[in-house]
Amino acid sequence: MTDNLLPLATNSLAHLAGAVTIVVAGLAALALVAVLCLHLLRRRDREAAQREIAELARLQAETTGRLDTMCTMLAGGQADLHRAVNERLDSVTHHLSQSMSTTRQQTAESLARLGERLAVIDGAQKNITDLASQVTSLQGVLSNKQQRGAFGQARMEIIVRDSLPKDCYEFQFTLSNRCRPDCAIFLPDQCPLIIDAKFPLEAVTAFREAKADDERKQAAARVRLDVARHVADIADKYLIPGETQDLALMFVPSESVYADLHDSFDDLLQKAFRSRVVIVSPSLLMLAVQVIQSIQKDARMREAADRIQAEVGHLMDDLKRLYERVLRLQQHFGQANEDVRQILISAEKVEKRGTRIKDVEFDDAEEAASNVIPAPIAHKLTAGD
């Protein structure tokens, strides 16, 4: 809009400058005419000079009129130009104000959305920082053998506590050989199932971090050696014939570590199973504990079967007595219904006899006196009347 106003103002100023030039030229011409008139007056006679002066006056009047008309036109053009420039400036100002207002509102909305997104990003950054600190602490826990054992022990205890009653397990249970496994779960035959939560994680970590083939081979050999040694220790310490179950569980506190063992060391899992030690992950331990819970529930149901059977016998006796009492009550209701029926029959008969007596007509008083109907002999109504 401002670019359109500049050419218009330039053109108007050019027209105004041309008009001023014309006025100046006219005045110069008048001055020249006046000089010529004076010169002619000196040379010619008075009449010719007067005629020329009159002609010059007429020309001067015409020129003056044209100059007035031109000045009026210039003033009107200048006023129109001023008005047009003001209108254009007002329009440009209005559009600029609206545009600035819209831009300011959009900028405010964009800043608000940007602030919200920055808040979300700050929250996510904080969560990432917390997660990084937790991962760092977890790495510190897993790097220390004692802390790692406590971590596996804690996960195993949470799984067992959430699924079994307190009298069905014991932590740090002492066996007859003075060994104390991490957990002992008591089955119905009173032989505990032993769970060990101390898994050798250093070799698995080295196997994961190995990059070269030689390093992976050395780490794999270390994994086999450490796990086999730990399996042998569990079998020697915790598998006691006649005292514990024939199988023991070695708990691995990480699903990913168990997946690596299952994918890369399946022969090691089979060897451990032949040694009667089952390597389990957290999900497999939860499944095993659920199976043990079902076994214990079935055992409790079998122990309570005699008592349940006796209670069912008492319940059947109570039901039989209830049936007999309902039958007696039904007989009483039948006798009452029969009595009510006979009473209704007698009432209907009395009503019919009264109706017949009411409908009897007498001819006169004498006949009524002579033909007195004797009163019936009173007798006791029976149930059939």
- Indicate the structural class: mainly alpha
Largest sheet: 5 strands, mixed
Estimate the global geometry from the Cα principal axes: elongated
Task: Provide the succession of SSEs.
Answer: HHHEEEHHEHHEHHH
Determine the strand fraction and express it as a percent band: 5-15%
The poorly predicted ranges are 361-385
The tally of strands reads: 5
What distance separates the N and C termini? 124 Å
Averaged pLDDT: 77
Helix content: over 70%
Q: What radius of gyration results from the CA coordinates?
A: 63 Å
What's the CATH first level of the largest domain?
Answer: Alpha Beta
How do the strands line up in the largest sheet?
1-2-3-4-5
What would the CATH topology of the largest domain be? Trna Endonuclease, Chain: A, domain 1
Q: Please state the second-level CATH architecture of the largest domain.
A: 3-Layer(aba) Sandwich
Tally of domains: 2
Number of helices: 10
